[in-house]
Amino acid sequence: MFRIQPLVSVLLCCFTFWFHISFGYLITCSGIVPMRYRKDKVSITDFGGVGDGKTLNTKAFREAIYRIQHLRRRGGTLLYVPPGVYLTESFNLTSHMTLYLARGAVIKATQDTWKWPLVAPLPSYGRGRERPGGRYMSFIHGDGLRDVVISGENGTIDGQGGIWWNMWRQGNLQFTRPNLVEFMNSRGIIISNVIFKNSPFWNIHPVYCSNVVIRYVTILAPTDSPNTDGIDPDSSSNVCIEDSFISTGDDLVAVKSGWDEYGIGYGRPSSHITIRRVTGSSPFAGIAVGSETSGGVEHVLAENIVIYNSGIGVNIKTNIGRGGFIKNITVSQVFMENVRTGIKIAGDTGDHPDNRFNPNALPYVKGVTLKNIWGVKVQKAGSIQGLKNAPFTNICLSKINLHGMTGPRSPPWKCSDVSGAAIEVSPSPCAQLSSPQQSGSCANHF
């Protein structure tokens, strides 16, 4: 399925073993959404589906899902996709269903981009993320759904994103590119045991959702594929992401909550997000918060993370005009290898949807704890740069050791407009985090 560098693989096993020893069992998020057993089962072939890689199966998928929606079998219905390559246009899921991909099954997006349906922009963004106006609907889409599962035997959902990436590079996009999978205004979602590859834009995007579990997934895209974020929980709550491998062209996991004045107006935060046992590489960030955080982000826990061959290990990013808040963020038990910057917390990142943003809408960043982080071949240890009129406070670093490319330590940290504390951090952090008088403000985080 994929190859992980031997050192990374060993470290991931060590982290898992540490969990067994420390807690007596492997911590999981299985209780957030119970896995449903569907007695009623249908196959895509029952509706004329043909897995030859050439036949267009849009009608088959839409008719199968229409049947599931309107017959409303008790306990829901499982839609089985047998081995084969099923070419299709985008389609909508329905509540109380499981989309199940057998081993060797591939659901592949058509490259007829001119047939792709448009949907309204997200209200917390005010426009498409890339272009003004609407946006192309995600390849697999769901809005206002309950109790939906996408699972299987490591079958593949292939977005065939190359044509979209080229349109972006050439400046030919009329609207924002489609995500691979998006759930909106939905609850009780499980995504597991599926390979996602070559998304046109972001891969998995739960937005305005609650109770979402994403586990045992593999997400793949070339390192030069633009904006192919792995998983982006957006203005969502009670989301668990675990036991997955991600290698894409943008952030592996990025927590978001709306863009400038639109996100402030919509006012829905992302909260109670858990990310654990995720391994991957990216030219951008491994674990990110932002930069779209205008609705607020709070209570995020990321632990047991392995990041290699990446731009930034942990990146918390916001900007003037964003407003909102970032608070109670904890990142722990992280190993990183061959990254440009280990840790970056910045208040000058990201663009704006239009010129109507309020430059006085400053983000509030408080209570960020980074601990038990080990890195080798790290070019720069880190930087924490707040805003002059909105300093970042209670930034707490503990037991962090970042080794440089040629010597035992990375170059020094860069900091401004920040306060907090640091304990057992190498190389030594900036003076703003080194004062013994400040350590009391972070004592409960260590």
UniProtKB/TrEMBL annotation:
Signal peptide extent: none
Keyword terms: Glycosidase, Hydrolase
Spans traversing the lipid bilayer: none
SMART domains for the chain: PbH1
InterPro entries: GH28_Enzymes, Glyco_hydro_28, PbH1, Pectin_lyas_fold, Pectin_lyase_fold/virulence
Pfam families: Glyco_hydro_28
Family to which this protein belongs: Belongs to the glycosyl hydrolase 28 family.
Protein name, as recorded: Polygalacturonase
Species this chain originates from: Gossypium arboreum (Tree cotton)
